[in-house]
Automatic annotation (TrEMBL):
<keyword id="KW-0648">Protein biosynthesis</keyword>
<protein>
    <recommendedName>
        <fullName>phenylalanine--tRNA ligase</fullName>
        <ecNumber>6.1.1.20</ecNumber>
    </recommendedName>
</protein>
<keyword id="KW-0547">Nucleotide-binding</keyword>
<dbReference type="GO" id="GO:0046872">
    <property type="term" value="F:metal ion binding"/>
</dbReference>
<dbReference type="InterPro" id="IPR002319">
    <property type="entry name" value="Phenylalanyl-tRNA_Synthase"/>
</dbReference>
<dbReference type="InterPro" id="IPR045864">
    <property type="entry name" value="aa-tRNA-synth_II/BPL/LPL"/>
</dbReference>
<keyword id="KW-0460">Magnesium</keyword>
<dbReference type="InterPro" id="IPR004529">
    <property type="entry name" value="Phe-tRNA-synth_IIc_asu"/>
</dbReference>
<dbReference type="GO" id="GO:0005829">
    <property type="term" value="C:cytosol"/>
</dbReference>
<comment type="subunit">
    <text>Tetramer of two alpha and two beta subunits.</text>
</comment>
<comment type="similarity">
    <text>Belongs to the class-II aminoacyl-tRNA synthetase family. Phe-tRNA synthetase alpha subunit type 2 subfamily.</text>
</comment>
<keyword id="KW-0479">Metal-binding</keyword>
<dbReference type="GO" id="GO:0006432">
    <property type="term" value="P:phenylalanyl-tRNA aminoacylation"/>
</dbReference>
<keyword id="KW-0436">Ligase</keyword>
<dbReference type="GO" id="GO:0004826">
    <property type="term" value="F:phenylalanine-tRNA ligase activity"/>
</dbReference>
<dbReference type="InterPro" id="IPR006195">
    <property type="entry name" value="aa-tRNA-synth_II"/>
</dbReference>
<keyword id="KW-0963">Cytoplasm</keyword>
Amino acid sequence: MAEEAVLGYLENNDQIIDSGEFASQRGIDHNEIVNTIKSLHGFRYVDAEDIKRETWVLTDEGNTYTTMGSPEAQLILAIPPQGISREQLQKMLGPSVFKIGCAQAAKNKWVEMGKHLISKKVQHVEDRVKNLLLLIQQGQGIGPDDIKALKARKLIVPQTWKCYSVKKGPNFAPKRKKVVTDLTRDNFQSGEWKEIEFKEYNYSAKGQPLEGGSLHPLLKVRCQIKQIFHCMGFEEMPTNNYVESSFWNFDSLFQPQQHPARDSHDTFFLEAPSTTKKLPEDYVQRVKKVHEFGGYESRGYTYDWKREEANKNLLRTHTTAVSSRMLYQLAQKPFVPKKYFSIDRVFRNEAVDRTHLAEFHQIEGLVCDRGLTLCDLIGVLHDFFSRLGMTKLKFKPAYNPYTEPSMEIFSYHEGFKKWVEVGNSGMFRPEMLRPMGLPEDVQVIAWGLSLERPTMIMYGIDNIRDLFGHKVDLGLIKKNSICRLGIEVK
Ligand code: PHE
């Protein structure tokens, strides 16, 4: 009905000046007319232009006065010929109508406000306010002074009204042609295909979004970093054990048993099974010895090393536990140089905030060969980080129980215009490597960083809880850009 009205009108007239008026003259809902105009506009049957019109509508208060009369008129009607006391009049009208009524009636000089009595100065009044409100309610215009007065009394408020002016478009026809989207067998058989008009292809229309599995940004970045390691000739270490013994997580790494990181405030210990079943006994003895008395030119920590402490199971706090296991295995055979990496989850008993969770992913790389020096470490770090797009690096001396020397790694972030910490590194200590049985001239250079940090920077996420955990918006997982890391190496 709306479509017939619009097309029919335009067939005989140049323009629909105002869709709002057009709709109300025909008793059609304006929304329906607007939808029709939009659809016809899409097929270029019509050209439409926005017009904004300001209209006035009654407030709730304005609406009540259209039935009850304005307060000043109510007041006049309530005053008897001999006058009335303020108290009595207020009781009759209620405080609000009384107050407004008095003010307006006095302004209109309709009443005499005596000290005790209120009396009428006029016998008959015309309720102009009510009449004006009724006009507005019927959609009729009133003069600007009246608008101003009613607006000041908060009886009306403006409302913008959006409508359209409509003209014939380039494809105008008095009736919409049915366009066909598919050619059918019937069309062929009946010969209809010669006559029918087909809908044009819309090459810029978006396709249906595909519902399928999608990769989380962390997985995408992990995949690219894996490739970078592979390109550099590194092998992946097996990291499929979240549960680790304190021995591999700490003791084998020459981390003393009193170290604060071994406290339950920092580490999650397991209740069941609370201890590990098997450790390589002769190696355990050498680790005990190096902690207690040193060796290999070290004095050790000189304390009583306890087996029970080493047996305690925990959720690994770093993937260096895996590196330690791998180096031990390497030491059991004739020495061959190795380049290893891992990327997997670690756990720390930490207070959760916008940059920390109790679990995250570590990226770790190590090179094990004869005669390696700190220069080799710096060289490998430059190679690795430049493939992540970080070409400006700085190093700061640091401390790890298992590395000496140790260096924190900083990279200059061109966007943030500052140096940001991107990782930690060092050369594994002889106190760690010698008890494993690695030859004396074998050194291991290693580094570690989190996967979350570069992912957050790359994907512009500043709260880790938006990236990982139960508060993550599934939309982010469904729709995120590809990770270009390692794709554009300069
Ligand atoms: N394990 C260290 C950490 O948790 C990272 C690291 C790995 C440091 C290897 C030095 C060498 O931060």
